[in-house]
């Protein structure tokens, strides 16, 4: 059995955090399973979050009208992406499993991790118009969101004020991970550990430890829909139309 | 009639971009309506995207276990937030209308704009456990997402491979803007201007110009649900359960 390679992209400022403990647990258990584990500690690396022309070494094609996706695609083709991006791309390419460990900020990833997605998942390297979703470039790689929340689980229930967590995660799990082809494993959600008693936090970490034992054998849920693109059903549209600003408003102003 | 104050938070690297043109159109039309318009040009400002202890001047309370939300809440109470954050908070507090103008990156805002949300919407300043959603601190302020996409509109239709745009925008419009109380206006979506012919782009800008004429009189769709928190309906949950990794997987590992 070949050694499995795991990449943990970790985004918390403090080594004393619950996120750090969750990251450490993953490193420990997965190493004990003979995995080679690499950690990208984004804050410690002072990872650059913003997508700028500095991500390209040498000349940009059109500085008058700089277009990030096109310029970085070209730079990737020619091996002119900045070293920090290239290094992350190398780690990602080698990985069989990628774990994103972060505290949820504003219903998604912290900016430093969004910057990792914006800068590392370069057009050409991570996706093309032809290669995405079920035909995505990373379809052999498993990915998992592991994160802490500030809110209690009940607030993310279908009738909770935050709405269903599946809706909250949709742009990340479908829009980023599945788009690049990743086999998305069920998210590991640590509900409000900061508000939990020490025993509560220990129990959450124990459950994570248990899950980690079999994590490499888990299958991405996307596979269950057999290579089909997931269409949003009409119910979703109708429901969210009631809750969020209608796109009809738009066609009105566009015509 | 008192002069209206507008803040445009703008996130594009290039003055030659369609996003820049859309921002300029807003500045021009709204000034012609006797609004005072301020623009936060995030890339030009080299706006810091990452949430770190440097956002606090003076000592942090617990450097061993640095918790960003708690530390910045305290710093805000004591007027010890970094100058760049304080300046953005001042602009936001004065504004009657906030327009976020950006190119959609990975189904949400670019990291530099996510950093603006992470750093400027401080606990205490922008929300508290008591003051959020329909009781949110910014309930007198209107907010609008105005953005370009790389994908065509059909890809974001309910049956499109990206899924419904309302679902994609949910974490931004409900999770950030409505959470802070903002009256969320219908999003202004410029569909794939880069792939459009010059006439197509002109038509999009003309439509935006037309909408801008009456923008200050538009009402947030959230108001239509009469101060009620928007619960996610069961259909949404059931639908997305089919499409995204099930949370059941989780309870299984948590117990």
What's the number of extended β-strand segments of chain A? 6
CATH fold topology of chain A: Rossmann fold
**Anisotropy-based shape of chain A:** globular
**CATH 2nd-level architecture of chain A:** 3-Layer(aba) Sandwich
- CATH C-level category of chain A: Alpha Beta
N-C termini distance of chain A:
60 Å
The tally of structural domains of chain A comes to: 1
Task: Report what the structure shows.
Chains A, B: Keywords: Cytoplasm, FAD, Flavoprotein, Metal-binding, Oxidoreductase, Phosphoprotein, Zinc. Chains A, B: Homodimer. Chains A, B: Belongs to the NAD(P)H dehydrogenase (quinone) family. Chains A, B: GO terms for molecular function: dihydronicotinamide riboside quinone reductase activity; metal ion binding; NAD(P)H dehydrogenase (quinone) activity. Chains A, B: Pfam families: Flavodoxin_2 (PF02525). Two copies of one chain form a homodimer. With 255 residues, chain A is of the alpha/beta class. Chain A has a single domain (5-246), classed as Rossmann fold. In chain A, 37% of the residues lie in helices and 12% in strands. Chain A has eight helices and six strands. In chain A, strands 1, 2, 3, 4, 5 and 6 form a six-stranded parallel sheet that branches. In chain A, strand 1 (5-10), helix 1 (18-32) and strand 2 form a beta-alpha-beta unit. In chain A, helix 1 packs parallel to helix 6 (198-214). The first copy, chain A, is globular and about 55 Å long. Chain A starts with a strand and ends with a helix. Chains A and B meet through helix 4, helix 5, helix 6, helix 7 and helix 8 of A and helix 4, helix 5, helix 6, helix 7 and helix 8 of B.
